[in-house]
Each structure stands twice: as C-alpha cells, then as structure tokens.
Amino acid sequence: MRKFLLSACILLGLSLSLNAQKQVQSSLKKGDILVNGNVAFGIGGFFYGTSADYVLLDHLGGATASLTTGAYAIYNSFIGFSTGAEADYHYQFLNDLDTYAGLQLGYRFGATTQLGSSKSRKLDPSVSKALNKLSEGLNMKTKGGFAYNIHVGARYFFIPQLAATVELGFGNIGLVRARLSYKF
C-alpha cells in the first residue's frame, strides 16, 4: 500500500510540475472580435445590453497581454439608455482564463419612471390618499448625461469561440455584470 501511495504522489507531483511548465497561450489574438450579451445589476436595478470588443494589440508586455477597444449599448428602465466606447487591458495567468481591467465612457439618454397610482387598489381612503400623494412625489425624470464605468473582470473560454464573463464595476452602468461572449 505504501508503494502505491508513494507512486501516486510521485506521478501527481510530476504531472503538476509538467503542467506548470506549459506556457500559457493567449485566448485573444490581434484582429479577434468578441460580441457580448450583458446582464448587469446596479443602482436602478437590472441593466440589459450588448457590446463588441476588437483586439487592437496583442503580446503587450508579455506573451499573454492584449488591448481591446469596443462599443457598448445598455438599457435600464430607471436610468435609461446608455451607449459609448470602452477599452480593456487583458492579461492571462492561466490557459482559457482571460482577466482584464478597463474603462467605459459614453452618454446616458434620460428616462422617466412613474410608480403609478393607488386608485385601483382597495385601500382605506386615508391610506389611498397618502399613497397617491407619495407616488406623485416619486415620479422621477432623469436627464441625459455622462456615463462611465471602471471595471475588472474574468472571462473563461469553454471552447475557443464561447466564453462566460463575470465583471465588477464602479460607475453608472452597473456594479455586477455577467456576459456571454462569442469570438469571431
């Protein structure tokens, strides 16, 4: 039994050593285009959108570093519609796992959110009157303006063309984002 365990440990050690010596291959090459479907959550609820990234440069500062640029369009019923440009710096520590940090800048077109009236509900008249007054005060109108997001993310390629992404960001385009990416 000891010989078996010793042999298993040696084989495991050798396989880990050989695996660690393999060079990490970049999943992104210059000229690749990634099309993404996005669902994000942030202040104002859920955001839905699409984006596209173009690999502008590869082999930056190392064999697995690259720079992408692209465009995005996102919609949220509270904030409105946002569109703009983005740029990301990518670095792969492991095969098929693309990590990145970037910035999105754009313009937000305003939306109007109305919470509605309590007239259709069967409530006590004093409660109904108070809710009507409150809902009139909560009719929100947002104006367009500058949209931005600073983010970090990780994209895992299940197959060479298909990947899933998780992203954390700070800005007015969503705080947590999930993407499904297809690479051309």
Features:
two-stranded antiparallel ribbon, Porin
Q: How much of the sequence is in beta strands?
A: over 45%
Tally the beta strands: 10
Spans with pLDDT under 50 lasting ≥5 residues? Answer: 14-21, 114-121
Which bin fits the share of residues in helices?
A: 10-25%
CATH class category of one domain: Mainly Beta
* Strand order, sheet with most strands: 1-2-3-4-5-8-9-10
Net shape: elongated
Question: What does this entry look like structurally?
Answer:
The radius of gyration is 24 Å and the shape is elongated. The model is unreliable at 14-21 and 114-121 (pLDDT under 50). It is α+β, with helices and mostly antiparallel strands and 184 residues long. The protein has a domain at 25-110 and 143-183: Porin. A hairpin with a 4-residue loop joins β9 (162-171) and β10 (176-183). The protein has 2 helices and 10 strands; from the N terminus they run αββββββαββββ. The longest helix is centred in the N-terminal third of the chain and has 20 residues, at 2-21. It has helices at residues 2-21, 125-137, and strands at residues 33-42, 45-58, 65-76, 80-94, 97-109, 112-113, 140-141, 145-159, 162-171, 176-183. The chain is 18% helix and 55% strand. The protein has an 8-stranded antiparallel beta barrel. A two-stranded antiparallel sheet has the order 6-7.
